[in-house]
Amino acid sequence: MIRCIKLWTGTDQKSHFEEGFIDLEPGVRGDAVGGKFPITSASFHETDADPKLGWHPDADRQLVITLSGTLEFETPDGRFTLRTGDILFTEDTSGAGHNWKMIGDQPWRRLYTILDPKTVVPFRPAVAG
To answer: What was the pLDDT predicted at 129?
Structure first.
């Protein structure tokens, strides 16, 4: 499993989040493998200093894969932290959006993958314990 946070816009036009995972299946070489799904584009980004964007929605439905750095995200639901290796699944493309800030001195390096509109992401919510 890979840690994944899902962001979406609710009927209240506010962003909400849920912690969960991207499920993986056993692979033929003893590894764990996820299914393939279509994306429309991919791009790498690096941010060295917090741009202080303020509250904003995302431009596209996408997966954002953190390669380095640590961020604290905020929504009306509360806060969560993204770290190296985490995936952010964003569907909050309208409404008030979310806010984030960089934590520490590491740059935020990430891969944005814009999803095909028909793509089903294998997100599984974490079980409350």
So the answer is: 53
Residue 107 within a domain: yes
Domain CATH number, residue 117: 2.60.120.10
Classify residue 26: in a domain, yes or no: no
What is the residue-wise DSSP string for 55-99? SB--SS-EEEEEEE-EEEEEETTEEEEE-TT-EEEEE--SSS-BE
- The reply to whether 92 falls in a domain is yes
Residue type at 52 in one-letter notation: K
Q: Count Cβ atoms below 10 Å from residue 97 Cβ, excluding itself.
A: 20
What single letter denotes the amino acid at residue 77? D
pLDDT above 70 (res 128): no
The count of other CB atoms within 10 Å of the CB of residue 94 is 11
Q: What is the pLDDT of residues 22-75, one digit of tens each?
A: 988 888 888 988 888 889 999 999 999 888 889 999 999 999 999 999 999 999
Domain count, the chain: 1
